[in-house]
Design goal:
The chain has about 120 residues and is an alpha+beta fold. It is built from 3 helices and 6 strands, in the order βααββββαβ.
């Protein structure tokens, strides 16, 4: 079954990390990727750019596309990145999420209803 590991945190925290702190955090991400690639469970991953680079596409009152700067949802935490994995069970996906840095981040584990390989 395919699962998305959706990574949330605050950009302010991530932006203030030193190079050494960021590399320490990325070691856990690299380990997850290596493990899931070896087990043929890795599908994709992405680290998103900061929210000030985002655009939101919606519709105006007439149904015409409306493009605005920034993300739509205004929250204390931002969506920072994701993994798409093919795991045998939800418990496996949760275990992978638990292997990532959690002190300043939250990982949402969500089944994916469709995906093309």
């Amino acid at each position: 079954m395919k699962f998305a590991l959706l990574i949330y945190g605050t950009e302010d925290y991530n932006k203030q990390l030193s190079d050494e702190q960021e590399m320490e955090m990325l070691k856990l991400h690299h380990a997850l990727q290596e493990t899931t690639v070896e087990k043929e469970q890795f599908i994709a991953s992405a680290r998103l750019e900061w929210t000030d680079t985002a655009k939101t596409v919606s519709a105006d009152d007439e149904g015409k596309p409306l493009v605005t700067d920034g993300p739509f949802a205004e929250t204390k935490e931002q969506f920072l990145g994701l993994y798409l994995l093919d795991c045998d069970t939800e418990d496996d996906a949760i275990a992978y999420a638990a292997s990532l840095p959690l002190k300043h981040h939250k990982i949402e584990v969500r089944p994916v209803g469709w995906c093309r390989n």
